[in-house]
Amino acid sequence: MKIETKTVSDRFIKTVCQRLANNKQVRRSLPKWGRVHIDRQLPFLCVYRRQNLNDDSLSERLIMGEASYLTATRNRSFQRQLANLVKNIAQTQKENFGSFLVVEVWFTTEGTNNESPFSKPAFKIISTPKSAILSTVDTFEKALKRIKIRKEAAEVKIVTASKIAPKGMPPLLTPAEARQLGCHIIGIEVRQIIKNPETGEIFPLIRRELQRQFSRALKTYFFEFTNKLTAFRPQHYLALGRWSMVKAVWEVDKQLAEISNHFDFLLQVTPINSTAAWSSFQRNHFEKTPAFVYRPLPLDPVMTKRLLFHIPIERIEDPTIAQLFREQQLELDRKLTLLIDRGTQRFLFGSLQLYGAVKAPLLNLANELLEKLPPRSRDESSGKSVDAKTFAALAMQELSTFHNILPESQNKVMVRDDINGLMVSQGNLLIGARTKIPETRIEALIQHEVGTHVLTYINGKTQPFRQLYIGLAGYDELQEGLAVLAEYLVGGLTRPRMRLLAARVVAAHALTNGASFVDVFRELNKTYGFERRTAFTITVRTFRSGGLTKDAVYLRGLVQLLDYLKNGGELEPLLIGKISANHISIIKELQWRKVLHPAPLIPRYLCNPQSLNKLNGLRNGLTIINLVKRSKK
Fold first, then answer.
1. Predicted structure pTM score
2. Which helix or strand (DSSP H or E) is residue 578 part of?
3. Where in the sequence of the chain do the CATH 3.40.630 domains occur?
4. Given Cys at both, which of 118, 160, 417, 511 links 129, Cβ 3.0 to 4.6 Å?
5. 361-379 pLDDT, tens per residue?
């Protein structure tokens, strides 16, 4: 809880230290300006003293993502109180760890380029002579040298000085006081690159990037210091990050979720008259693009954008969480733009921004699959199939196993007239009333839809952030890769299915190269041997709303996932919610920080010895063609 104070009194200091002694969070405002935030008992404290109260560069953000920090004014009348607060914090924490580290950070304009405001990053590490901490600063130097801003690597120097403080300020701790307390202090002088020294113009994107990379370097150094000079042994350097989230995080998460839940993007861009359109296409001898009808929009995209960009993500101190939320904000913005552009030529350009184009390696793989896999296969030629209601009952049986573990989950299976095929929307499986499922594909599709899409939705629901079940930015590719992999692991990734995924890639590539609806249909039907109805369905999915390249992510996601497994990646962490491959390292970080917890559900196939054997085989580098061959055995 944020509490205002007019002075750092003895009583204020005593309260802070008592909370720290009891391993409770401290978050208090300081006089005039500043804050002390300490997550829990930790053997370090970052300090930033603002040189000018009118400084609007938010330079203090550089340390505000850390689990233990203090920001304060440089007001001279306040420095004695501030030093007393720091000394008492150091003494209290030192009793728990045997040693303590104070890191003071400040900016300097020395070394900036007078001819250009875009100077390269630079840091100076300052410690006292003959300090035991000198044995650890090499690690900090290496970590800081890995920082790159605008492709410029950081310059780093290590110096010693008898006084550690920003220019013109008294030191918080003298060397003698530090020795008496049994703690250490170092200074980090940072070249001012977040604003133009001539004009005062601020560069907020550089500030964010500098904070993100500097935060990682700090944690790397804290880990080294902790292991060498304290009795504490953290499991990982990321475990020294923030565990607790402030109110601003939950407010932003809630507001983003409210906008996400207000519309279902895929439902809104998918036509509702595919059956009538097919009949029209037949009547016109497959020579005229049919007219498609879409659902009315349940929102005003422009007004929703206003709400979206009113969400105060800038209030979030944690750079990792802020990054996730900004990505989400931008992806929602792109989806809303696509809804505005639905049915126009502009829609395709927005789709390319959201899902990307088909690159040459993926196109070559798709063509290879279509060439090597015969258009006619016995894999699904039994002729036996089940209707929508029968499949719904089987899917509900699978879903009930999740409900047994998490009774609070309310996910459903619904048969609907306005759906073609299968679709998961907000954790519910929707089945088109006219859908027929080949018996050989039942288990594969259940694991694709329920065992992957519904399962990751439910797992995401159990996490503290709503974005984990809604889907982090760019999650579709990994989601569909996982879903197709599930088909393989249960023995249901057939040759026709693989050809279908390859055809979607070819169709998306043709679309972006200017092919018409009829052109793509003909190529799928006559060149690649797909039956007319199948070719039509692929083409409709590709050209919906003006051109959607999303269907290329199925094969691309599978390729990406196989590379991940081949390089030693584990499958279970990917099931924590709806995430992208770019977020794997962030998810692991948040787990080390105890912000996220393990997923409660795993797919049924991960308890099957045959599936596990197949999964182990993937780590040896099976190709996409091998998957289909192996699934037949």
1. 0.90
2. none
3. 10-244
4. 160
5. 999 999 999 999 988 755 5
